[in-house]
């Protein structure tokens, strides 16, 4: 890579997002580490810098359009215009639909889906001007197959697929690609509270016989964010150990 590109990773304080940020930095990109609060980015930023990389933390409520726009403007001012955007920020508020209140529905949609829309829109002008860009949206196998008690999360993650496909069609002629990664059951804080019986079922059902790790997801994201993936766009790649074969 002849130039250092700026990569934005939302939800980068822990789990999959943190690992993606670390590996993008290792590949030579300057990384804008985004989390709801800037203090939550410190661990990831320090890890990148300790390894000789370039990183800076930014606090942002991605569900707020004005906040997303202001954050991308700040990143552009301090690091440069984002060339790579990884929309990873996500929350869950699981409960059966009959018990789900409006706030649980609206908040999950706002963060997981509208947040990706806000961040993408804020980055596109710079990418189009540069005629180069990589957008990778982190969905979930739940968005592809559904999940009992997860109507809000499944709808948001399925919506990311539609958002990605439309983005790919709109901006592909400008050298910008948009793809989806759909992780399965990955060992993170988000899955740590799952019932033991569910974990055992996943391990038993998936051909690889284990849960995934953030390290299983991040290299694929980094590939899609690189020059090597210039002819891949609008693709949905499941990283689920074969769970849904």
Question: Your description of this structure?
Answer:
The protein has 8 helices and 7 strands. It is α/β, with parallel strands linked by helices and 245 residues long. Strands 3-2-1-4-5-6-7 form a 7-stranded parallel β-sheet, sandwiched between helices. The model has no long low-confidence stretch (mean pLDDT 96).
The low-confidence parts are none
Element-by-element helix/strand order:
EHEHEHEHEHHEHHE
Strand-residue fraction? 15-25%
Q: Can you count the beta strands?
A: 7
Q: How much helix, percentage-wise, in residues?
A: 40-55%
Spatial ordering of strands, largest sheet = 3-2-1-4-5-6-7
Annotation field: number of helices = 8
> What is the overall shape?
globular
Summarize the structure.
45% of the residues lie in helices and 16% in strands.
Comma- or semicolon-separated keywords:
alpha/beta; 8 helices; 245 residues; 45% helix; 7-stranded parallel sheet
List the helices and strands and how they pair.
Blueprint: E1 6-10, H1 15-26, E2 30-35, H2 42-50, E3 55-59, H3 65-78, E4 82-87, H4 102-130, E5 133-138, H5 141-145, H6 151-171, E6 176-183, H7 196-205, H8 214-224, E7 236-239
Parallel strand pairs: 1-2, 1-4, 2-3, 4-5, 5-6, 6-7
Helix pairs in contact: 1-8, 3-4, 4-6
């Amino acid at each position: 890579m002849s130039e250092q590109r700026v990569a934005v990773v939302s939800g980068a304080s822990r789990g999959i997002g943190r690992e993606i940020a670390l590996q993008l930095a290792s590949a030579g990109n300057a990384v804008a580490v985004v989390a709801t609060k800037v203090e939550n980015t410190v661990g990831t930023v320090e890890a990148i810098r300790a390894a000789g990389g370039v990183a800076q933390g930014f606090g942002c409520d991605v569900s707020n359009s004005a906040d997303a726009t202001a954050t991308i403007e700040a990143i552009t001012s301090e690091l440069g215009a984002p060339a790579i955007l990884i929309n990873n920020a996500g929350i869950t508020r699981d409960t059966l639909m009959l018990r789900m209140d409006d706030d649980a529905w609206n908040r999950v949609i706002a963060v997981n889906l509208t947040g990706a829309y806000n961040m993408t829109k804020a980055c596109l002008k710079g990418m189009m001007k540069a005629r180069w860009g990589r957008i990778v949206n982190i969905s979930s196998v739940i968005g592809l197959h559904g999940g009992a008690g997860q109507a809000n999360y499944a709808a948001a993650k399925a919506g990311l697929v539609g958002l990605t496909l439309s983005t790919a069609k709109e901006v592909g002629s400008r050298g910008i690609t948009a793809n989806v990664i759909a992780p399965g059951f990955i060992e993170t804080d988000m899955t740590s509270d799952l019932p033991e019986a569910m974990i055992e079922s996943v391990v038993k059902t998936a051909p690889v016989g284990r849960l995934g790790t953030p390290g299983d997801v991040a290299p694929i994201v980094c590939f899609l964010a690189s020059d090597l993936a210039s002819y891949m766009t609008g693709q949905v790649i499941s990283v689920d150990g074969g769970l849904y074969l």
